[in-house]
Amino acid sequence: MQLPAKMIHSLFLVNSSGDIFLEKHWKSVVSRSVCDYFFEAQERASEPENVPPVIPTPHHYLISVLRHRIYFVAVIQSEVPPLFVIEFLHRVVDTFQDYFGVCTEAAIKDNVVVVYELLEEMLDNGFPLATESNILKELIKPPTILRTVVNTITGSTNVGEQLPTGQLSVVPWRRTGVKYTNNEAYFDVVEEIDAIIDKSGSTITAEIQGVIDACVKLTGMPDLTLSFMNPRLLDDVSFHPCVRFKRWEAERILSFIPPDGNFRLLSYHVSCQNLVAIPVYVKHNITFREGSSQGRFELTLGPKQTMGKGLEAVLISSQLPRGVLNTNLNPSQGTYNFDPVTKLLSWDVGKINPQKLPSLKGSMSLQAGASKPDENPTINIQFKIQQSALSGLKVNRLDMYGEKYKPFKGIKYMTKAGKFQVRT
Amino acid sequence: SCVHNDEVISQQRGNVTMKLLREQATVCCYAFECSSFLTNPITYGYMDGFDSAVQCVTVLYWVCDPQMIARGKNASDLFPAVVKNVACKNIEVKKLVYVYLVRYAEEQQDLALLSISTFQRGLKDPNQLIRASALRVLSSIRVTIIVPIMMLAIKEAASDMSPYVRKTAAHAIPKLYSLDPEQKDCLIEVIEKLLADKTTLVAGSVVMAFEEVCPERIDLIHKNYRKLCNLLIDVEEWGQVVIINMLTRYARTQFLNPNMNVSTTEATAIVKRKPYVMDPDHRLLLRNTKPLLQSRNAAVVMAVAQLYFHLAPKAEVGVIAKALVRLMRSHSEVQYVVLQNVATMSIKRRGMFEPYLKSFYIRSTDPTQIKVLKLEVLTNLANETNISTILREFQTYIKSNDKDFVAATIQAIGRCATNIGEVRDTCLNGLVQLLSNRDELVVAESVVVIKKLLQMQPEQHSDIIKHMAKLTDNIQVPMARASILWLIGEYCEHVPKIAPDVLRKMAKTFTNEEDIVKLQIINLAAKLYLTNSKQTKLLTQYVLNLAKYDQNYDIRDRARFIRQLIVPTDKSGALSKYAKKLFLALKPAPVLESPFKDRDHFQLGSLSHLLNAKAGGYQVLPDWPEAAPDPSVRNVEVKESVQTYPLHPPASDTASGSESGSGSEESGSGSESEESNEESESASEEDEEEEGKKKKKNVEKIKARKPVPESESDSQPNTIASVQVFDTICKPAWLYMQFLLNPPLPVSVPQTIIPSGNLKTYELLHRITGEGLSVEYCFSRQPFSPDPHMVAVKIQFTNSATSEAKSLHVEDAKLQSGMRIKEFPEIEVLPAGETISVVMGIDFCDSTQAANFQLCTHTRKFFVSIQPPVGELMMPIFMTENEFKKEQGQLMGMNEITEKLTLEEKCQGEHAVVQRVTTAANLSRVPCGSDKECRFAGKTVTSGSLVLVSVVTKEDGAAQLTVNCEKMVIGTMLVKDIHQALTQ
Predict the structure, then answer these.
(1) Do A207 and B233 touch (CB under 8 A)?
(2) pTM reported for the whole predicted model
């Protein structure tokens, strides 16, 4: 009698052309024909991201995530929280990215042995076992160019010779015996602003999503505390497991023994709309006239509420209506590109100089005889503001206990556009 | 050099072959090459030729690669060659052999058995990691013959000393169960045993095993319920999900519905119910899961959210909304699942998500499936106050290029209009405008929705019906045409002139229409015939004749039926009298319902909920019981009763005068330790000046109050560096060290013998902060009898105020999860100028985290915290030299920490070393043959892990300190503390 086994049974990796290029089974082998149901769903979906994440089939359920144009399709046999599987699959992708720098089909194929080794360690009988990057790296060393060369010469392998200890310690996210000659701790406060701006320029919704990414290279078992000047700003937070929650609750101080290397310490949310200053404005005039085969297109960008910091790496993209055949536009700076097939307009603006506002003006040629498009295009904006966190969040101080040396500490702030849309 | 050359050559050859192999693995000669490679390296001294490791790995990888298998390259014939490598020392080779073994063992059962002995040996290895991995692979081999061996291995591993091995045992349980379900009873025993485990490492895995093997045995959870709640926050994230889901089910069977009174106030107002009081265990679960809403893991957040949705009182469910909205920022797959659940929740608890309305606004870049779900949520959230904002949003959406989304928006508008009467007309007008949209799909969808809306109040809208009648000329979508025809037929009295004309046009095109349209044409014809037979009699007959010869039998059938009913003939029965009533009865307006309505009978967050169908293995979420089952089943037997609490005889110090009523409130560890609190002037000299002054003052105070019996031993000045007290109130305590020469006694000795008095005292509450009440504490180093897993902390209150302090007690302990406090009994009165000592127990969980709590008097509350030096987390045990050596041998590798040090001048000599080590840590001395070595042994108080310390002295004060402890953090910290004690 075969009982329905819980959790993840098998994993298939499918590339954008619909080929299964890797499969891994944790229990008995499931025929790859099970993926036919997935391919059917894929065909039905108009866009790659519209494939339903959960697909029931007669004997299995397929749960998939799409990242880097690769579908990671997990096969399960019975009830399991779908988010459990989805979260795990994303963790797998993150791990691959961490190990190989990129998570592409080529990278996975090049490192196929490491991939198998990783998958073998990450799940036991379909249940997650070691998903912490610090532990995995003790078990399986990530490939580097240097190590590949060394391995070829000496014939040694990627598998750690030392038995891992992280799983056994009370701080399972940190490997033991860490040693550095330069002890450094860097923290990046990165805020993304999500906004929808309506036709008239008023804000419909705006929120800030922030993260603090850390790169900590400290010897031994350092115990860090990080405090903010204005912790009340943080509306909703989620922590890396290393953060002591009770300390945060009581004192609004982040106290933690960090993992070694790169990790995301904290993500937070600032939603109070009044607090969200919109750093950029767009003046637009996009018109299609009924019966005419020409349309006008005018766009001007300008900075607003940037606290004296410059807007950089500004990139405008917009999906123009299907009826637009081509565009004839003049950018005052930067380069623009229109793809007549996908109708995607993109304008790489670069820096915005407040004295000379960048603009993109010209005409669009429309399909002759076609009627005027219903909708004006939505404009997506990307930008960066260095050395500033838009919410005003400021780190007050970082202290270290438990070790004697003096670490080098660094904190960097940055603001980026997240899903920033202007409706026209 | 000759050898060297050989090596280089063979190495190069290895590399070339490796490359070749990788490239040519698909070539058919592959199997042959493999077998020669696999056997050769082993027989010809694979161990010393490093190039062959690479070959081995490469070959093994290809052997294990499922793609090879998919191409028909079954590698099972290589089994003997591969399995030999199981004994190989190279870990990568070993691992790949494991992978291969697990994959092919079922096909090659006999040969698989050859490898079993290797694993059996591994199960006995002194290294816990090797024991664990041996069990992991052994339990993955799906060969029925070895079931007894697996069972035995699991049982043994379940009582292994290492929690990691026990975790692996828990993982192995479901594997064995799926191989042989007959073993269920035996496995349940193991599960029961592991459920009682106190470590976070094991908790998640064993609950997983429980869920797979015996989810119906809810009784196994009772005794472990509180522990699971308390451990939860420290369990790894995947385990948290499993535990939370299980506890949700558990709570539904054990507690009463917290919303019982709310939902039944009106219905059963007459029946007086007992007022609802939440079971403290129910509260415990809610309280301990709440912080996990802050987890970075979406699955954990969802698990807590569903727990709150299913278990919390209505007023408290709101907290989950914020966390769920946060998840919507995550990957689109996460969004998809979260939105499905939010959609279900927002029907039941609309208010919860209303503040986050804007977070559900749709962006043009969202995938369609996300857009549609967001729309669903927005519709569910619509009410009188926000509808105008929502409709304005909807207007933007209708212009979208994504037509599926536009159609869904129109449906959503329809639903808003039916639910909220005030906006019905606005919506209707908006939809009518859409009828002139250029896109046919948009028009069609609008027609369908308008039809439903019009049914609610048709009289007022004859012009809309007229407008729609005109659409029949253009619109081709069958559903829309059918809807229009139905409308005209139903309300033909409102449009008496147009209706016959529409029928005329339809009769013309009848043969080319879709089936649903044909049925509606027949319908229209019948209704017109009944109301306006003069104009439409012929038309109707014509239509019915066409239908009579239709290809579709439904249509033929319908035509025959209707003809009989409406056209009076001599044969027509009684029914035709009622034809008008049958056709033109007032029809109830349709209710536009959310597809997510009532989906919450599935546990939220589950696969079954997402699919709205029961998935295999789904455990139904039970309904709340009518009456709560006995809550005492969750009580854990701890020998705790207030009477037996302080076992020590009342101290014969000054405090005895303050005893009020129960002598048991007063406890202390005897006068010896009292004395140790006393101070010699030198103690403060090394402290910072300011600090020192304060302390001196304090000291003088103490002295003035109580004469100091001269201590016999030398007092040693000490710095405070080794004591870290994170509490804001605590100033670094002044420390005294008095060294008594007798070594600490092993626990086996009855506790009436009190260990040496060399105890440090720490300040818990300063006299000034405490407004006259000063509190000090020390670790009395005595077993805490009510609970042997707690560290005894002796607390001494001194009331130097002018008035008496009343009802001194502990409140509101804020503890790291797993930590526990056994409070001292309340002190009713402490008269001015008096001192009293009590003992409390703290289970620090073998960590040096501070225990924070409030110390309360009748007027004030003080936040205080006790942080133990690592040396106080252990208790001495007695051991012989041989036992010590044996245990030390088991704790090698990463469990051993060695440090070289130079002993301080005064500390050279066995005597001094023993003194300082036993002061720094609560250990007992182990006899030793050599006078160059001192050994100490103890075990941690909570988990009983061994702590072994040895100090080997060499010439010139050089020494080597070795600490062996399974808990590496404790080991590391202990090395530091002892190192400091010996060198300063």
Answers:
(1) no
(2) 0.69
